[in-house]
Amino acid sequence: MRLRHVEVFHAIYVNGSISAAARSLNVSQPYVSQALQRIQDEVGFMLFERVRGRMTPTLEAHTLFREAAEVFDHLKSLRRAVANIRSHGEGRIRLAVVPSLGLNIAPQAIAGFRVRHPQVTFEVQTLHHGDLFRALYERECDLAIAYEPPAHPRLARIPLGRGELAVLFKPGNLEVEGKRLSLDRLDQREVIGVSGSGPLGDLLARSLEQENIVVHEVIAAQTFYVAAALVRCGAGLTVVDEFTARASLPLGVDFRLLSPALSFGVECVHLIDRPLSTACREFTAHFRDVLSTPAC
Fold first, then answer.
1. 40-51 pLDDT, tens digit each
2. Rounded (5°) CA angle 115-119-120
3. What is the architecture, at CATH level 2, of domain 92-160+265-292?
4. With bands split at pLDDT 50, 70 and 90, how would you rate the model's confidence at 3?
5. In degrees rounded to 5, what are phi and psi of residue 179?
């Protein structure tokens, strides 16, 4: 089947009639009718039957549609890419970040980048650690920014900086002195845990085990920013990444980095077979600068 035939078949299947398909394709009805006849001649079987004025797909058409829909989706993606390049010069950046970076760092980076490159547009999504890589593999984003991404033969990794884990608490709920808090201060404490927090959760768990420190998880949250919201409401203290902690400061909470420091890497990841565009490479460099000197 030719690409145009795929479009015609898809339009008839979705719209249910020759006339509606012609309108969606902005062509004449005879063109669609003739194209359908040519398609059926080529494939060697009927694709639609006319029932009460509507084009009803045959069993073969249902089977074929699953493949045609995938081709059609790729074609739409290609057209969007062409339109973005035509309209915006360097195009559109499809970015995925872990939720805690979506609180403050990513918005700063995007806003600052667009001041210098207003022709570049963004599509942004926050995803849990495992979902970031699924989005890359399924081509739902161009680049992902995550904590301690795993090594994988399909992924290229670009270091952007480092962060640390921090104890987040409401003033008055924890006595602190100095700029850091000893990890053993958490021993036998009730904490708000972050279940499924990926490599940062593993980092904390390993450190607690190595130091024989026991904490009692009385609330389990799904994300760092939910844990931070619970702290603001007086539900207890939690351990989060420092970017979530810093973003929470104007909201009436305080934090201390841990001693010994529990640090982690922040990296940009993309598919090796899909090199970053010029705009993506420049944005990655800008993100690195924002990460090292956050404005708020």
1. 998 899 999 988
2. 85
3. 3-Layer(aba) Sandwich (3.40)
4. confident
5. -90, -10
Backbone torsions φ then ψ of 227, nearest 5 degrees: -60, -40
Q: Do 231 and 192 contact (CB within 8 A), yes or no?
A: yes
What is the domain partition of the chain in residue ranges? 3-88, 92-160+265-292, 162-264
Report DSSP state, residue 261: -
Cα–Cα distance measured from residue 70 to residue 86, given in angstroms and rounded to the nearest whole number: 24
pLDDT digits (tens, 9 = 90+) for 103-130: 899 999 999 999 999 889 999 999 988 8
> CATH number of the domain at 162-264, out of 3.30.70.141, 3.40.190.290, 1.10.10.10, 3.90.1150.10?
3.40.190.290
Are 190 and 216 spatial neighbours (Cβ–Cβ below 8 Å)? yes
CA distance readout (Å), 115 to 87, 110, 119, 283: 17, 9, 9, 12
Give per-residue pLDDT as tens, 170-210.
998 888 888 999 999 999 999 999 866 789 999 999 999 99
